[in-house]
Every structure is written in structure tokens, then in C-alpha cells.
User: Fold FLYWCH-type domain-containing protein from Acanthoscelides obtectus.
Amino acid sequence: MGIKNPKIMLDDHDYRLYRKLPGKTVWLCSHYYINEKEFRCKNRIETSGRVAYVKGIHNHQPRPRKDKYKNMLSQMVTIVRQP
Ligand SMILES: [Zn+2]
Assistant:
């Protein structure tokens, strides 16, 4: 079994799987994938085991959604915020 479009949700922001590397997985804010390059959000999460490193700041507001907990698996992780 597999999850087709893995995502992370944190603080009402969505992150999409960008790349799996040995020992860590990189997730980029969904606002990285917009067409206008200069407005791309640079916030990212790198997960390693059960630790999630949050890097950078968002250049946009979060987008709260009612359905955010539907079809979601939750995991306990340690969140480390880095500038
Ligand atoms: Zn963002």
C-alpha cells in the first residue's frame, strides 16, 4: 500500500513531499508550487525519523480549512523550529 500524494499539515499550512534523501525527507510548502517564481514560499520541513525541522518563514497567510482532518493519519513528532 502507498499514499499517492503525501502531505504534511502544520499550523494550517500544507506541505508536499519534495524529495526523499538518505536519512531525511524534504517537504516544501504548497506555496512553493505556484507559477510566479518570485512569490514562491521558501518554508520547508525536513523530517528525520520522528523529528520535523521547520525552516524559514512563510511569505503568506495560512489557509484554515474545515476538512483538514479528513483522511489524515496523524503521528506524534518532535517539531524543531529553525530560522
Ligand atoms: Zn508557505
Notes: The chain has no helices and six strands. The chain has a mean pLDDT of 87. Residues 13, 29, 31, 41, 43, 58, 60 surround zinc ion (CB under 6 Å). The longest strand covers residues 13-21.
